[in-house]
Design goal:
Blueprint lengths: L3 E5 L4 H10 L4 E6 L5 H6 L3 E4 L7 H8 L4 E4 L8 H22 L6 E5 L16 H13 L1 H15 L6 E6 L2 E2 L6 E4 L8 E2 H11 L9 E6 L2 E2 H11 L7
Parallel strand pairs: 1-2, 1-4, 2-3, 4-5, 5-6, 6-10, 7-9
Antiparallel strand pairs: 8-10, 8-11
Helix pairs in contact: 1-7, 3-4, 4-6
Length: 243
């Protein structure tokens, strides 16, 4: 059955791929901040809507979300504008979207949030991490500390919310390689990357998986077909959030 979907951060590489996958059979609106991006959104089978997670009020987002079944948040500063803008977009922008969903009158949409692998309380090391994971974790948190902190704070805010259903997808480092169609989901290691094609495929599948509510799922390249890996992770029901 066709769903009404809103993608926040609609012009991102993953978001455009997602729109191409779900747009032909669903009613998809992609939120962008630059009207010049509208043509790309239309070409990806979605409808453009100009709003800014930095500047537009919560009420505008709540209006955009009214009647939606699912909202995707796949938005980030992308390293542009320094640490202050990273905080503004990746944390404050995410919280604005959470608040907007709560402000929707009547049925509230489900949220699928794109975060990042290894976003966690650094005082708590996941039990499945090996020495290579620990070394990679230390490297990443030193390389992009503001980004990892913003994502952590956003995720920590979200996991405490009960007014709407949510799922967090936590991909590893991203590549533009063609999708392999095979992944590893849940309790993964940090040394494997993931194609943006495969991230978009998992996001598309999550559109029809409300049973993933309350889960944070790590995602990297692997050996298991995407649908099979996602189904197994959801049925297992173990979150990868370490808060």
């Amino acid at each position: 059955m066709s769903k009404k979907v809103v993608i926040v951060g609609g012009h991102g590489k993953v978001s455009l791929r997602l729109a191409r996958l779900i747009g032909p059979s669903n009613d998809v609106t992609s939120i962008i901040r630059d009207p010049a991006q509208a043509g790309d959104i239309t070409a990806a089978s979605a409808k453009p809507l100009v709003l800014s997670v930095e500047d537009s009020p919560v009420e505008d987002f709540a209006r955009a979300f009214r009647g939606a079944d699912v909202v995707y948040f796949s938005c980030g500063a992308g390293g542009k504008g320094g640490e202050e803008r990273t905080r503004k977009v990746d944390y404050e922008g995410a919280v604005k979207v959470f608040d907007a969903i709560e402000a929707v009158e009547g049925p509230k949409p489900r949220l699928v949030l794109v975060s990042a692998i290894d976003v966690r309380d650094l005082s708590k090391v996941p039990a499945h991490y090996n020495d290579a994971d620990k070394a990679e974790s230390e490297r990443i948190h030193k390389l992009i500390p503001a980004y990892m902190q913003a994502k952590y704070d956003a995720d920590k805010n979200l996991v405490q919310r009960t007014a709407f259903k949510w799922t967090i997808l936590r991909p590893g480092w991203l590549t533009d390689n063609p999708g392999a169609g095979k992944v590893s989901i849940g309790k993964t290691h940090l040394t494997e990357g993931i194609s943006r094609d495969d991230v978009a495929k998992v996001l598309a599948l999550l559109l029809n998986r409300p049973d993933a509510h309350g889960l944070a799922l790590d995602l990297v390249g692997g050996e298991t077909p995407v649908e099979e890996a996602l189904d197994a992770a959801i049925k297992k029901g173990e979150t990868d959030w370490v808060g």
